Amino acid sequence: MELTDLATLSQPSERAILLLVLDGLGGLPLEPGGPTELEVARTPNLDELARAGTCGLHRPVAAGVSPGSGPGHLALFGYDPLEYRTGRGVLSALGIGFDLEPLDIAARGNFCTLDGDGLVTDRRAGRISSEAAAPLAEALDAIEVEGAATFVRHVKEHRFLLVIRPDTELGANLADTDPGQTGLTPRDLHVTNSESEPAARIVRTWLTEAAAVLSGQPHANMALLRGFSRRPSWPTFGEVFGVNPVAIAAYPMYRGVARLVGMEAIEVSDDLGSLVAELAARRTSHDFFFLHYKAPDKAGEDGDFERKVETLEALDTILPRLLKVGPEVVLVTGDHSTPARLGSHSWHPVPFLIHGGEDRADGVTAFGETACLGGVHGIVRGCELMPLAAARAGRLAKFGA
Amino acid sequence: MELTDLATLSQPSERAILLLVLDGLGGLPLEPGGPTELEVARTPNLDELARAGTCGLHRPVAAGVSPGSGPGHLALFGYDPLEYRTGRGVLSALGIGFDLEPLDIAARGNFCTLDGDGLVTDRRAGRISSEAAAPLAEALDAIEVEGAATFVRHVKEHRFLLVIRPDTELGANLADTDPGQTGLTPRDLHVTNSESEPAARIVRTWLTEAAAVLSGQPHANMALLRGFSRRPSWPTFGEVFGVNPVAIAAYPMYRGVARLVGMEAIEVSDDLGSLVAELAARRTSHDFFFLHYKAPDKAGEDGDFERKVETLEALDTILPRLLKVGPEVVLVTGDHSTPARLGSHSWHPVPFLIHGGEDRADGVTAFGETACLGGVHGIVRGCELMPLAAARAGRLAKFGA
Fold first, then answer.
1. What's the pLDDT at B95?
2. SS (H, E, C) A201-248
């Protein structure tokens, strides 16, 4: 269902919604036929919630597709990630918590190496260390061009963010300067429509200045830009679901994607107790709470099955305190699977549970991938979870007469 | 997910994929509550593959829709048959293995009967026998018109294929001449855009000649044309999934639909051993193999439950030899259901299994319609199977950052 349809159906309700995201929740068994991380973890409180509520699995993007964090969270917010797409520049800004303003044009930058003939010999400047790259990014940040403010922020290793903040609204259909392979010169900055020519002139000037700043550096003697994009103007989460939403997250990426859909975003420490405290502090001022818990994904990415189990057990111990704060409808799931066995995000469906509101019983008595297969919801798309939670909270009116 | 998106995500992998299509695989019980053909068949090797792998069911086109062979196979190749459509003329050419060239305009022809006033009295010329119709098609094949080569091939009974091969590219938006009911004259050949007028002139000339050739025949004294179409230019299967694909099939229809998506196609005999030999011969030169096994569909179409059981048991006996050749990921399914009880293609979901690559366990221990309902994949669309197989083969990169 389109967001505009959902917005039409949304109606007020006393019942608040808690979306608790255990990042990278879904897993795989270490041995064929064995239990996953979640199935090994002792999670009596999640199990009880699964037993009292209803369960299923979701595909964040599509069958067989491993989601990035951006698309995975957009899906959980109800935004179909195949439809609601953001450029690499905007994602880069989100990832480091750079607040994009409406006129801003963001690009993902790479430090690269050019030889004496101006040909790219390394598109990542020898994967230059963060320590070496950060001062270079600072030097680029000092560049001044006419017609726009420009910002450069170091991201990690060879990666940086460039933001052009023009004085007036400019077209932003700018092609990548990254030639995509070595042995070629960086591409001249091309535009795909004439309205983008003023922005192109600004970026060309910036590139000339950047070349001068980086000239003489042993590795990172030039910058390649790609994914020019502007913060999209989408229906806000608050409009779509008729709620006053707040995101509570320790990492900038997740606050960024929440702000992208118009949520207020609160920074917390990595400590689980602070999630409870921040939720409690906003219990009366807001009626939708997105809580982000990063630890399971990090353990999964590290290929550490045991640690992922422990992160889930740790979350389980604070669950009663979260529930005591009292949002009436609780949705617990992940933005994608991160099986320790693979050490990466994967395409496998993610278990979810919904507690609160009216539904039929399913026989699920534990929160786990295999158990959730037997849940009443079956396998749904990630962007279908929010409508299910909203319905359970009495927040969706009848469609049609 | 769009094919262009999949193409962006596809990445190289050492793992090859075998798509083994048991045509018309899905069935129905003879008595309510009884077993299907597949459930009656003793298939220890398929059962073992289902046990070690993961299972589900797929809908080739849409809920309640019985697929033709073309759409059924397009779905298995990852092409949504609701989006990727071919005209009846092109399907007719595929069905008899006529190799369409890019400029060719194909139409499905029917021999029909006109009365003395030129009104259609039978749109199928009394369902004229193949023996009687073949010489008429040969006579039509001899027609020569200016500006194009023309080809006529008999298909079956009153059906034939007309191909116009113009000297230069011509528009092909030509309307049917079949009036769709008796008591009317054949429709004049109309065009829906002016670029198609040159092709229309050629077809009108051909129709005049055809009327002269058929004049005086007792039943088949005229031809009706419909479904004018050109071979579509779609993204190729190789581009979309980043593989070097080969189709191995005994029947022209299936080689034709494989060629339509750019696969190389190899003709084999009906003998199951030759499927193994041809697969083995291409094990190193290709990394995607589509093997087609026609027998279950033929038995189903004949309403022969026992013979369909036998065809599945026969396939099962050669499965170990196919697996020994060794593509790392194996997908076994059908292009649609052909229950012997109905004697026709049907809309019932088709069981599938995927073996190889990482996944969770399901409790499925036998390959059958009811057992597959408990599989980890649930019920998916037919066009989602290839992304699932590609993911298992490590051939799909992460979507978004």
1. 83
2. HHHHHHHHHHHHHHCCCCCCCEEEEEEEECCCCCCCHHHHHCCCEEEE
Across the interface, whether the CB atoms of B397 and A66 are under 8 A apart is answered yes
Cα A291 from Cα A266, distance rounded (Å): 10
Mutate to test the interface with B, among A58, A65, A79, A383 (most CBs of B within 10 A): A65
To the nearest whole Å, the CA of B124 is away from the closest chain A CA by: 44
Range list of H helices, B196-271: 197-214, 237-241, 252-260
Residues of B in contact with A363 (CB under 8 A): none
Task: Provide the phi-psi class of A226: left if phi over 0, else alpha when psi is between -120 and 50, else beta.
Answer: beta
| Full-model pTM | 0.90
Give residue for tokens 């690499």. A88
Please give the average per-residue pLDDT across B81-89, as a whole number.
93
A69 and B401: CB-CB below 8 Å?
Answer: yes
Transcribe A136-174 into DSSP letters.
Answer: HHHHHHT--BTTEEEEEEEEETTEEEEEEEESS-----B
B151-176 tens-digit pLDDT: 999 998 999 999 999 999 999 999 99
CB within 8 Å of B31: residues ≥ 6 apart: none
Which of helix, strand or coil describes residue A191? strand
Buried b (16+ CB within 10 A) or exposed e, B4-43: ebbeebbeebebbbbbbbbbbbbbbbeeeeebbbbbbbeb
Average pLDDT over residues B306-332: 97
Give the contacts of B271 (CB within 8 A, at least 6 positions apart).
none
Strand partners, A10: A396
- DSSP β-bridge partners for residue B166: B148
CA distances to A62, A130, A149, A169, B398 from A97, in Å? 27, 18, 18, 23, 22
pLDDT at residue B375, rounded to an integer:
96
Q: Is the pLDDT of residue A321 over 90?
A: yes
CB contact under 8 A, A62 and B387: yes
* Contact predicate A122/A219, CB 8 Å: yes
> In this model, does residue B37 exceed pLDDT 80?
yes
Please give the ipTM for the structure prediction: 0.89
DSSP state of B180: S
Mean of all residue pLDDT scores within chain B: 95
Are A38 and A27 in contact by the 8 Å Cβ rule? The answer is: yes
Residue A382: Cβ within 10 Å count: 30
How many contacts, defined by CB atoms under 8 Å, are there between A and B?
96
Q: Estimate the crossing angle of helix A197-214 against helix A130-141, to 10 degrees.
A: 130
Q: How confident is the model at residue B10 (pLDDT cuts 50, 70, 90)?
A: very high
Residue A91 confidence (pLDDT): 85
**Do the beta carbons of residue B301 and residue B338 sit within 8 Å?**
yes
